[in-house]
Amino acid sequence: MNGRAVVAEDRRRAADFIAMALAAEVDCSDKSPLCLLEMAAYVAPSWDEPWIRLAQYMRGQNKIVEAREYYRRATSLPICRNEPFIAAGVLALRDNDPLEAFSYLEEATRRAPDNDEAWHAFSIACLALGVVGLSLEAVTRAGVLAPHCLRYAMMHSDVLAVVSGSSDISVEVPQWTPAVQLALEARKSRRLGYLQEAIAFSEAALKLQPGDPDLLQLHADFELSCQEPERAELFLRDALKQRPGDIDITNDLAVSLGRQYRYGEAADLLDSLIIPPESSSTVLLNRATIRASSGNISGSIDDIQTAAPYAEKGLLYQTESTLLPYKYGTTAGDLFAAMRRLASTLPEECPPLAKITDFRPDKVLRVGVLSHTLRQHPVGWLTFAGLENLDWSMFELHCFGHYTDHDRFAKRLSGFSASWHECTGMGVREIAELIAENMIDILIDLSGIGDGGLLGALAYRPSPVQIKWVGTQASTTGMKRVDWILTDRWETPVGYEQFYTERLLRLPDGYVCYSPPPDPPSVTALPARANGYVTFGCFNNLSKITDESLSLWGRVLSHLPNSRLILRCPQFSEVGVPDRFLKRAAEIGINLDRLELRGRAGHHQFIIGYQDVDVALDPIPYSGGLTTCEALFMGVPVITLAGDFFAARHSVSHLSNVGLCDCVTDSTDSYVDKAVAMASDLEALASLRAGLRQRVLESPLCDAPRFGRNLGNALRSAWKECCQLGACT
């Protein structure tokens, strides 16, 4: 047999091994695909196919080091296709190895000068090495070859902006398709703050290139900026059909689902991906947040740790600070340090934007409230009644944030506000400039650092007095330019000042004013009387139901053998979430026969659920806020364990305001003892239930005129102190 025949026979045998490997992958047989592929490479070592297949297999297993080595073996052969050079270069970029990427991708463009993907990847490698002129040439070449590709056009535009003004770099602009030109105009309009104009451009682009995944993703981003996650989801699902498995599109889709409170579905989407931390740390941090919201705190922490070496510090610190209050064992000192790290990434040293020159102590004050959640939301339920009852002869309210025109709370707030400034799609700097232009004397943030939070606007000092109130209010903001945090003596007892960069603006009663729902469900007789057993309940979000909370509740149930526990949150309506949760509960030792999970419901139906609950159990460490107020309003007492940071003491404040200080405990043992004691005295529990709603309504928690006076006095006091200084820093 001659040499050519031997080579042909070796390749035939190798091809058989490759076929068996592919079948083993599909059928999940006992045969190892890896071993079969290695046999293929052994019998035909000079053929590039086995090495490429081995690299692809390792890449699918997320074994990038091994994949890169196999691609190197393929590219070292005398005869090799171009694909391994591109793949090797892309993986080198993913591993932050731009020098090796440059080498492979330069060779790929030499071998296949008509391959637009090779030129695009080569452009990225050049940019990573700081060779901006060559990067521009490469992405220009990609654009000439594929003028319909928005990704190339956007990169071309970005690199062009970097080299603008360099006389030694000649600039060529590809003849982009009309759709891509419209998309670039949309992007430009978005950057200038003209969101509706951007949407109009992107819609026109999609009509010219329907189904284009880049255009669909761009338009979905605009819809998300408009607070329209349902619409964004539709476009992103279409984009994902065109580009299955794309990490960025999948991430954006998960974001849109998360904003619809479909966290379980969002987590499943992201869990299906192999996410490289080197190039996709932002996606990992997003998954960390979504995992926490779907009840997977340990997975969330793993994602943060994996992303940390590669992530942009501001986003990393924001994610850490957002999730830290849900982690058992977190202290006020931990949160203080985390929020200070986050604040260090904000531009608090920039010149202040505030334009106020009138510092008369008794003038009518223009008060601004800042949030995208000025609607039927915990922010609305806990603040609107107090704001509504300010003395409007001395105050004037101005809203900055998204206006939800179909929401009754938004309409209510708009009704007693002097103006409402729609800030959808604006950056925090733009919003700060808008606030400054409107001459706001006192700015109150009601958004915080969560998804859609606008707290960063306060870094630009658009107002001489800046206050943090409800809205992701877990601890200090850590910011120098937030002057005060609105609180009370239960949220922040004397001695807690050390954990806050702000001064503590303590109200004489509670720090919030609860608005009871119109036409509320009635308070029913104690369920235990009819059932013959006590039912505990917790209607808090799944992210708050830590393993430690479940363990604590398991101890309560063990002392009362016939007792039951009802848990309710929107995530329990999602496929897969209840099963995963029940598995976790069983591992902790909860008897699943005594556990009932309830899912999503409209607000009226949601609080009707308290008619089935005798005693509510607060989660740890992040306590209930609005849920505690609603439980009390429905006649259900709440047992809480007081922590040392703001979010761990919400229920302490609400319970104390209605005179139920004995429901506040200081240890897990006393928590269990109090819950068991209360559930064991049905006579006292029934009596408490019968009178609790009236007690709540008559308490400072619901006394809106009283709260309005207290709030007005506090704001005036803060203003007078500012007047003594007469300038902004």
Folded structure, characterized:
The chain has 729 residues and is an alpha/beta fold. It is 53% helix and 8% strand. It is built from 31 helices and 13 strands. A seven-stranded parallel beta sheet has the order 3-2-1-4-5-6-7, covered by helices on one side. Strands 10-9-8-11-12-13 form a six-stranded parallel beta sheet, with helices on both faces. Strand 9, helix 25 (577-588) and strand 10 (595-598) form a beta-alpha-beta unit. The longest helix is centred in the first third of the chain and has 25 residues, at 3-27. The chain is globular, with a radius of gyration of 30 Å. The mean pLDDT is 92.
In short:
With 729 residues, the protein is α/β, with parallel strands linked by helices.
Strand order of the largest sheet: 3-2-1-4-5-6-7
Please work out how many helical segments DSSP would assign. 31
Radius of gyration over all CA atoms, rounded: 30 Å
Strand content: 5-15%
Shape: globular
* CA(first)-CA(last) distance: 88 Å
Helix content: 40-55%
What is the makeup of the main sheet?
7 strands, parallel
Uncertain stretches of 5 or more adjacent residues: none
User: What structural category do the secondary elements indicate?
Assistant: alpha/beta
Query: Roughly what is the average pLDDT, rounded to an integer?
Result: 92
Number of strands: 13
